[in-house]
Amino acid sequence: MDRIEKVKNKVNKLVNRGLDRHMRLAVTGLSRAGKTAFITSLINQLLHSGTNPRLPLFTPAREGQLLGARRVPQGQLHIPSFDYDQGIHALRSSPPSWPVPTRDVSEIRLELRYRPESGPLRLLKDTATLYLDIVDYPGEWLLDLPLLSMSFVEWSAKQRSVLNGRRRELAEQWLTEISELDMLAEADERQIKHLSGLYTEYLHKCKDEAGLHWVQPGRFVLPGEYAGAPVLEFFPIVSDKLSESALSSAPPNSLFSLMKKRYDYYCEHVVKDFYKEHFSQVDRQIVLVDTLQPLNAGPDSFNDMRQALEQLMQSFRYGKSGLLRRLFSPRIDRILFAATKADHVTPDQHPNLVSLLQQLIHEAWQTAAFEGIDMECVSLSSIQATEPGNVDHKGETLPALRGTLESGEAMLMYPGEVPARLPGESFWQSQGFEFRQFRPMPGPSDEPLPHIRIDKALQYLLGDKLK
After folding, report:
1. On the CB side of 238, how many CA atoms lie within 13 Å of its CA?
2. How far is CA 227 from CA 29, 50, 145, 152, 278, in A?
3. Over the stretch 308-323, which tens digit does the pLDDT of each residue have?
């Protein structure tokens, strides 16, 4: 009898283990979109899910199916861990501050325990487990996907085509020093290091000074594990005077040959390896988009963000003839696009935020629908920083925001209207939009973080997995 019981127990354990499931959720977005804040809040809400009153739109929590969550050791031991503790410490400090942004890929695993409501799981056991791997990576890395279908010469021509206006001003020092460069001369490693450093500085200036988002290669501004490696020491050809025959017959030790070799290596071992190791294993994806800062910065910044989003969207085109399908066979079945920092505009502007985001990703939405990928848009605030209020303006009462600026100054203000469609020339000529940076709202350490619509994001991304 003991032997039969042992066999039963062993079978039950195998069944239970087989029914436990895994899901990989990738979180990405361009710089300053709020990835670290989002992941910190998402984890915090789930850790409080058993008694969390802030999740009315998340059905498993609202109806008591989700029993709770806990952090467990991650499966991918070679990937840096997401520093949840640092984020919570910053948010609970006095005064509270935003978590330090991550600049590399990171991962954290949660174990979610729930009561199945239907299907074979309900017949076999009272409770089930979903292991949720949350993977954080910079959206700038996705901007490099087009490089896989471009030669070094083609990529150089693309970079030349955008060296206009503000970009040309920012690249002035680099352009001056390479203006007389002989690409067919013998390569000098010290010269390459210096010039590639100037090119990298130019890309940083595009992001940090001009608020531009479209930068290539993406790893030059967010190198991660490749910081200081020679694979990040190359730059495009800016002269179009060299003929194709001259370039094709360039000596192996020439500057051109070395630049081409490093570009090819970057595509093969950095870009392609990233998609193989991380992107192709993702089950669901959320893309965070900050539309407010580009609206504040002006048309150049906004249009550049739009171009960057269009490049990023290529990562979600899975058609049979597409590059991704041929190389990596991704398995993502749901993508959520989120307009972040919704609490930095008044509640009446939230529908406009969603509408504007839908306009920005319209083409990708059409493609995703055709290929059977579920896609949704939402506006949210990962960690609430303001409260609604009212302000008098020329005898009229307007909705306003009440909060504390990052400088420590208390502020009651009306930031302005968010355009519901892609802004035209009239908007930029007359717009009075003023986006300000607020610090997080303080709160008790034993309560979940205040948010706006994180529960809606959870329902879309996880709701069907916890039935």
Report:
1. 18
2. 21, 42, 20, 21, 19
3. 888 888 777 665 555 6
